[in-house]
Amino acid sequence: MKNTIIYMVTVFPNVSETFVVSNILQVLDKGSNVVILAQKKKSSKNSSQSELYNHYSLDEKVLEFKEPQKSFQRYFQALILLLNPLIFFYFFKCCLVLNRVSLEFVFKLKYYKPYRKANIFHIHFAIAGDLIPLLKKIGFIKSKIIVTFHGVDAFLKEEKI
After folding, report:
1. Is the dihedral of CA 115, 24, 54, 56 positive or negative?
2. pTM to 2 decimals?
3. How large is the average pLDDT for residues 81-99?
4. Separation of alpha carbons 8 and 16, rounded Å
5. Rg (CA), the chain
6. pLDDT tens for residues 100-131?
7. Exposed (0-12), middle (13-18) or buried (19+): which is 24, by Cβ within 10 Å?
8. Higher pLDDT pick, 127 / 69
9. Could you tell me if 50 and 58 are in contact, meaning their C-beta atoms sit under 8 angstroms apart?
10. Residue 64 CB coordination number (10 Å)
11. Given this model, what pLDDT does residue 54 score?
12. Residue 147, number of CB atoms within 10 A of its CB
């Protein structure tokens, strides 16, 4: 089975982050499977490396996190998702550890569920890490985690998870 590397970024592609694309291409060239989880997905026109972006079909590897915006849809979809014992169990654990209840946890668990046993989560920029440290701490994420700091994110205010 191929290694699966999950790349986490805030925006992809981003014209100023050629180093992220270079890293992904090296991993692809070595035969690993790559999934790019982005908080916001942009078109290939936003890449300064659009030829490489298109040659490697990176657009097909990018998944943007989306959750329902309308109140009724949020509650209905969350209810359906919470019928899954795995989602319910880890939702409960998230709520306990963070000492708050948020439907966002349900949607994040659904988003990350297919990748929870990937070989590696590689987080570029600490702010892209989202709930991954918490999900690793409570046992939902089974993968190894790498965080690459690129400068400004190394000086963020510490938050306890």
Report:
1. negative
2. 0.86
3. 97
4. 16
5. 16
6. 999 999 999 999 999 999 999 999 887 788 89
7. buried
8. 69
9. no
10. 14
11. 86
12. 16
The dihedral over CA atoms of 120, 59, 124, 81, expressed in degrees to the nearest 10, equals: -60
CA pair distance 75, 16, nearest whole angstrom: 38
CA distances from 108 to 3, 19, 26, 64, 94 (A): 23, 27, 28, 11, 11
Per-residue pLDDT, averaged over 130-158, amounts to 83
Q: Report whether pLDDT(84) > 60.
A: yes
Checking 41-50 for CB contacts under 8 A at 24+ apart, the result is: 41/11, 41/12, 42/11, 42/12, 42/13, 42/14, 44/13, 46/13, 46/14, 46/15, 47/13, 47/14, 47/15, 47/21, 48/15, 48/16, 48/18, 49/13, 49/18, 49/21
Among candidates 117, 18, 110, 3, which has minimal Cα distance to 65?
110
Q: What is the pLDDT of residues 51-60, one digit of tens each?
A: 888 899 999 9
Cβ within 8 Å of residue 137, ≥6 positions away: 97, 161
Question: How many angstroms separate the CA atoms of 70 and 42, rounded?
Answer: 23
Q: What's the maximum distance between 2 C-alpha atoms anywhere in the chain?
A: 46
Q: Per-residue pLDDT averaged across 14-26, rounded?
A: 87
* 15: its two tokens: 């014209």
Structure tokens belonging to residue 90? 């880890």
